[in-house]
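cron nightly-structures :: item 1 of 1
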Amino acid sequence: MNNGLVNAIIAYIMWGVLPLYWKLFEDVPAGEILSHRVVWSFVFMGILVTVQRRWADMKRIAASRSLLLSLGASGLLIAVNWLIFIWAVNNGHVVETSLGYYLNPLLNVLLAVVFLREKPNRGQWLAIAIAGAAVLIIAIDYGRFPWVAISLAVSFGLYGLAKKKIVQDASVGLLSETAVVLPVALGYWVYLAAVGKTTAWTLPAPTFVELLLSGVVTALPLLFFARAAARMALSTLGFVQYIGPTIMLFLSVFVFKESVSPVLLVGFALIWTALVVYAIASVRSTKLAKAS
């Protein structure tokens, strides 16, 4: 559990500061950034799996239809999540991305109860209720249907559930996921070249090198997340996730200068209160379990 918690904290801090990285490529369309993200993630993970000498595991996955389908589904889910996130960040919607990842833990709890038969205690349910009320306040104050936030929450929630269901080494699993969407990414490169709309390849050399590093930037937090998902309850993992959107919220206000209303701040304060309540309830539950 402790090892899982450390991995989760590292992953969510990395994701929290990720908008700073994607802002480097504001002039590149989101779809093209995504294609590079997929390709260079595959390259980086291929090198890592080679160093780890895990290609035998890849052959085993290739021979298993059920594993291929599961990893294919998780690969598509995370690719959709990446595309929406990149587009939102580079089009001035960092506050809404923050809301999406605040929504995600609530969805994680629901998925955990329905599919994994996890049973939160009364204190944890209270925290969930407080966070739910906060999200409702935020959504009403936002003034329109927050499709970016909902899409991010659903895609990443289902991805977390898929990772919980797949018993697979983190490195091999991520390489398999990127391999599933790699043909689409390469096909998009061919299409862009054919219609003369390639943008990334015309970037200044230093900026293009930074884009090449998108494989590392993408893979590292996912590796930490996969390790955390294998060691923690999905509902608890979801609440640790509030680290990421909190960092995004501060970036949106103090770095990207997006407007935040007083009502929105009240909503976020309620969410942080829910975090404290959830943490206290979880600690007490653990102590009671050890005492018995």
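cron nightly-structures :: done
The first helix runs from residue 2 to 16.
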